[in-house]
Amino acid sequence: xxxxxxxxxxxxxxxxxxxxxxxxxxxxxxxxxxxxxxxxxxxxxxxxxxxxxxxxxxxxxxxxxxxxxxxxxxxxxxxxxxxxxxxxxxxxxxxxxxxxxxxxxxxxxxxxxxxxxxxxxxxxxxxxxxxxxxxxxxxxxxxxxxxxxxxxxxxxxxxxxxxxxxxxxxxxxxxxxxxxxxxxxxxxxxxxxxxxxxxxxxxxxxxxxxxxxxxxxxxxxxxxxxxxxxxxxxxxxxxxxxxxxxxxxxxxxxxxxxxxxxxxxxxxxxxxxxxxxxxxxxxxxxxxxxxxxxxxxxxxxxxxxxxxxxxxxxxxxxxxxxxxxxxxxxxxxxxxxxxxxxx
Length: 343
Prior knowledge:
Residues 1-110 form the WH1 domain. The structure is a single chain. By secondary structure, the chain is α+β, with helices and mostly antiparallel strands. Helices cover 71% and strands 16% of the residues. It has 3 helices and 8 strands, in the order ββββββββααα. It has helices at residues 93-144, 149-264, 266-342; strands at 3-16, 24-26, 32-39, 44-51, 54-60, 68-69, 74-79, 84-89. Strands 1, 2, 3, 4, 5, 6, 7 and 8 form an 8-stranded antiparallel β-sheet that branches. The longest helix has 116 residues, at 149-264. The chain is rod-shaped and about 230 Å long.
């Protein structure tokens, strides 16, 4: 009843996996309320979060704790008493910043409260020592007399302080019993949390198996998509081949049309060919006649050459005879010249 909320926000709560100390395990299915509480009686601060009837965070803040921002929307702190690490995921960076600033503020207040508690503990210890000393002083005072009245009054004050200290001890015992009951409740909540964690583990295992099946299905679909793509490529190649064949067919049809047009002029060409053949035959006959004439001319030429050679031989013998006669005339002339000279 002495605890009062001093700051409240909403966040997704996580705890570190106790087996691996690495992975985060969700402690809430959705964003829940996370509050700072101040206990006036104990002068202490706690972070508490409840999901339905289940306590998921019950962390007493000590001066040794540190809140660390690990990303723009996520922070964490370690609780050695709970032997775990809590993590909070916020919807915005501003909420994370406000929570971190409040953590630092509460941490400083917890440090001051610890220092005051240590001072009180030291004072109580001094009072206890003083009460034991005063007991001895009372014995002495019975022997000394009324001269030590001042010390007796101080002793009475210390007894009153001791009585108050005993009352505080009873109060602390009540608080200790309350803490034990709270710890028992927290232990039960922790057991429920452990059972919930086991359930989450089973669900996670089922999800992992489902994920593996979906991945296998995706691989099969990707393989089918690859086969479809290959089939599309083959279809594209077949279409290109069909277009090429159609182009060749069109070219062949064009050639066929040209041949048909040419076949229409074949009779005319055949008649012309017959006419040319007749002319060729006539030319061959003329050629044969000409060849006969050429052969007769060659024979005449051979005969003419033979007669020419014969005439050349005769002409040569005639020239030799003529030369002999000319030489005889020259001799005869020289003889006549000699005779004329002699007479």
